[in-house]
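3.2 Worked example (two chains)
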Amino acid sequence: IVLAQKDDHFKAILNAADIAIPDGVGVEWAINKFKLKTSNLKIKRIPGIEFMEALIAQAVENKKTLAFIGGYHGVAEKSLQQVRKKYPVVKGWADGDISRGFYRNTVKAVDAIQRDSIQKIADTIITTKTAYVFIAFGAPKQEFFMEKLAEALIHKKGAFPIVLMVVGGAF
């Protein structure tokens, strides 16, 4: 939220989300502290990991494919392995390779990811019929990455509804 105050592009990405989850306790506190006195609205924090776990359970129930992208030192792959322990029938794949060198750079590093890498991931999502894609690069890199991936997916033939979720430290 603080970065969105300074970066219009990042603000546009956040505002374009179909769902924005009040994950941080600071967000919950600020909304409840500074809401209009006449409002009875109470905002409750929704931990992103709990939302992610609910989506994974839904994917398993509906026999949908999951993708874990990002993470450092094989964390995406390890996360998928943990999910498979709980749900042995889960269909999914992980790509941590795109993360190499990504964390040491600035947000501009997202622009350095070659278009071919994004296209390769978009192609994999379409060919594997992946319905849920979890992205963990840390904010705000993951949001910029997700925007580029969404743009690549829009232009794919045979596209279908896909949930893209940035998950930060949930992996």
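3.2.1 Second chain
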Amino acid sequence: MKEYDSFLYDKYLFYYYNILVLNYAKTDKEKALDYLNKASKSEVIKKLPSYNAFIYLNRSLIYYYQNNFIESQKNIARLIMQEDFLLLDKSFQLKILLSDLMIRMLVSNKNLNDKITNIKKEYKSLLLEKHHIREKKMIDLIFKKINDGDVVDNKEDLLSSMSDSDSEDLDIISYNMWIKENIK
């Protein structure tokens, strides 16, 4: 990137940080956070429309996997409040909001019913689509759990609908792993 007087430096800087963050998120979370902080200070990256989504979502996920759920929740909440959030694809927005519910449930059940109601209202048409059935089922499971409902059938239904490895690939936070760890 530094060759030819850094001619392509600005063009590829975001991808460079993205690769570093994704790789270190698996092996060295502190180093991944360090690169996220460096990326967040770069004027080149700040100009990109997806900058806030990249920074806040990755920070949230790293904190989540460090079991620092309060910091994870703060970062995903910041992402949702950004104007850039509305520029994201509606399906991706839904997955982020569902991840927010999952993290919030680990911190506190406060205001979750209101958040669920809002998601069901704002994303009603998406939740009716076949390829978003898992998101709908996951929202229903969380709703039942926070309202002390019986979640056994919901839990088994969701866990049997997709393999653990596919869930890890497709979900922001694997629904299967989250259910196994947090829904007793």
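3.3 Remarks
The chain has 13 helices and no strands.
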